[in-house]
Amino acid sequence: MEYFLGVDIGSISTKAVIIDSNLKIVASSYLWTKGNPVDAVKNVLSELQSKIDDNVHIVGVGTTGSARKLIGAMLNASVVKNEITAHAVGTSTIYPDVRTILEIGGQDSKIILLKDGIVTDYNMNTLCAAGTGSFLSSQAKRIDVEVEDFGKIALTSKNPTKIAARCTVFAESDLVHKAQMGYKKEDIIAGLCYSVCNNYLSNVAKGKKLEEPIIFQGGVSKNIGVQKAFQDIIGKDIIVDKDGHLMGAYGVSILALRSNKRINFDFSIADQKFETKGITCNKCGNNCEIVLVKQNDKLIDSWGNRCENGSVSS
How much is the CA Rg of the chain, to the nearest whole Å? Predict the structure, then answer.
């Protein structure tokens, strides 16, 4: 049987799955990126290798996420795809009738609308990280609560506090103000969960018609407080899959399976040296910034040039 690897490299976390030719996930990994996507992928590969048998031979690799091009070069990927396509493919494979995907990750969020498995519309957040996982993590530290406990604490609230939702700075200021006024911690935490949802719906999902089935995924989907807030605000059933945080990696692994490119992937790649370097090309007025990717000091890929003058061969 053939096996395929999908890797989703985000700014906060790196996710990876290995699937068989029947689209079944046989191994998965979820680790923090820690600002170093190359090392994060090496760690993910090591964890995956420890979870599979020696007879699992990977013949296709797909990458997605913010560092997809870099890691695609590193892994000699069969497919390099954007997050919208990867999430849509992964989710619609498990839920063929899905119409709306709500996704909130560490620093970004997106909405994807589908019909008959085809993306009809989408939107992503701006540079502001308000209403994302990193926002919740920073607020958890501020009120001395583990972010993993946010959800269950929020569910104990009977009167969620209203927290400004449109901006991280305003939300933090509002949170401090409410805490100083003596509001209960569980009410503030529940208020933050509603704040995340309201921010998402008024910015990312603004003007979009949310049709069922609605799937909520991404790391924040594991927060049961945010799940409940979405359910209350939208007034419709929200589906959260146990593997929802892996949908990008799962989707791009399926795209690798569907591609015609087959490779002989070797886990020893995690032991090799990879280096990226940015240079400025001064051969024309564009002054392009070119990214070089080297494996064991050998150039394996480059990009960024807008004309032939910037072509790099060594």
Answer: 21
Any bridge partners for residue 298, and if so which?
295
Asked if residues 88 and 78 have their Cβ atoms less than 8 Å apart, the reply is no
Q: Which domains does the chain have, with CATH numbers?
A: 3-89+249-271 (3.30.420.40), 96-240 (3.30.420.40), 274-310 (no CATH)
- What integer pLDDT is reported at residue 92 of this predicted model? 96
Span 157-208, pLDDT tens digits: 999 988 876 666 677 778 777 877 888 889 988 988 898 898 889 889 999 9
Q: What DSSP assignment string belongs to 221-237?
A: GG-HHHHHHHHHHH-S-
Which residues fall within 8 angstroms of residue 125, CB to CB, at 6 or more apart?
108, 109, 110, 131, 132, 203, 204
pTM for the full predicted model: 0.85
Whole-angstrom distance, CA of residue 80 vs CA of residue 29: 19
Q: Which two tokens stand for residue 204?
A: 């990312």
Token code pair at residue 4: 């395929």
Put the strands of the sheet holding 100-104 in their side by side order: 118-124, 109-115, 100-104, 214-217, 238-239
